[in-house]
Amino acid sequence: MGKGTIVLAYSGGLDTTVCVPLLREHYGYDKVITVVVHVGQREKEIESATRKGRKIADKHYTIDSREKFVQEHIFPAIKANGSYEGYPLGTSLARPLIAEEVVKIAKKEGATAIAHGCTGKGNDQLRFDFIIRSYGFEVVAPIREMNLTREREIEYAKKHKIVVPVAKERPWSTDENCWSRSIEGGNLEDPAYHPPEEIYVWTVSPQKAPDTPLKVTVEFKEGVPVALNREALDGYPLIQKLNTLAGKHGIGRNDIIEDRILGLKARECYEHPAATVILTAHRDLEQLVLSRQELAFKRIVDDKWSELAYMGLVYEPLYDALNAFINTTQKRVNGTVDLELSKGLVKILGRQSPDALYSKSLVSFDSASIDQCHAIGVSQYYGIQARFLRQLKEKKEL
Q1: CATH topology of domain 178-352
Q2: pLDDT, position 168
Q3: Does 363 have pLDDT greater than 80?
Q4: CA distance 270 to 323
Q5: Model's pTM, two decimal places?
Q6: Sheet-wide strand order for 253-259
Q7: How far is it, in rounded angstroms, from Cα 389 to Cα 358?
Q8: Choice among 65, 124, 267, 351 that is catalytic
Q9: 95 given a catalytic annotation
Q10: Is residue 83 among the annotated active site residues?
Q11: Catalytic annotation on 124?
Q12: Catalytic residue check, 361
């Protein structure tokens, strides 16, 4: 008699694939159920993972959570200008949703534990563990617990005649959702190594992008994109369409040294064409419609929101409180932003909003709607304390 049923968060990649036989042979589970959660991976990846899961597991589920991912995780990230250390949040946004869907299956199947294929060095282990333990399930993480390296995993897979999508010569580890694609591992672990073009799938090299720039218009309603080039679109198709358009112009590549949750520095490469365009447009529109004080405070809130989202702490009470503030500000983030995409660069061309805190007649140098003499009184008191200190300093120096 074994340990009963365990549900595995499954991607079809090396780590999660070798977990299936390990959960049987090493951990003694009677039944291994794999769960693939579709959050915008390429269809061939979903189809491949589904076929593989059905073949090697005792039971398999593929769950389509694309629209839910956009509505419940990407849209809040857009409102919060979600970014971490200079790049748009991506992988971290999907982890809580994937974990929650796996938990649902575990409850349905009467599982005694939930497994994932995360290592003990990355961020995902903590994001998954947090959600899984919040529902009272035991966590099993074979790669972490057995201290497995990728080379040992590849050898183990070959021994068990399991086909895995990596080789020792090209051991890239990738993660993909509709908002972002991450690439790490192999030679990329050397910060001085120059990434080859073969690691990129969504974007062309900026040097090989078309010479003619592409102009696009993104329309926002209450902080989220609702139309692209005047065409009303739901969230997921809008993001997918913009990924294709912007990717062709080399938009949305990042190659950075990132601080992981554990404190380890890691070299990460990312592709996020649509995210780059949408977040650039969103920030610009906020500048037009939010007050100076709102913008200043929201930058602090956005940073803290992004930190919690990066860590996967979506059940942290502060996360809900930050969302409440952010949602209040977004009621006025309505309007359109025109952008130019060219050779890897995004340029703002113009913006307009019915909620703009802007008056051409007041700000124009060609307008007399404001009596400029009124500013003289303000100028008399402007920086008065600093002026006093400067005068005292000059007296002492005499």
Answers
A1: Argininosuccinate synthetase, chain A, domain 2 (3.90.1260)
A2: 55
A3: no
A4: 26
A5: 0.93
A6: 173-177, 180-184, 265-271, 253-259
A7: 36
A8: 124
A9: yes
A10: no
A11: yes
A12: no
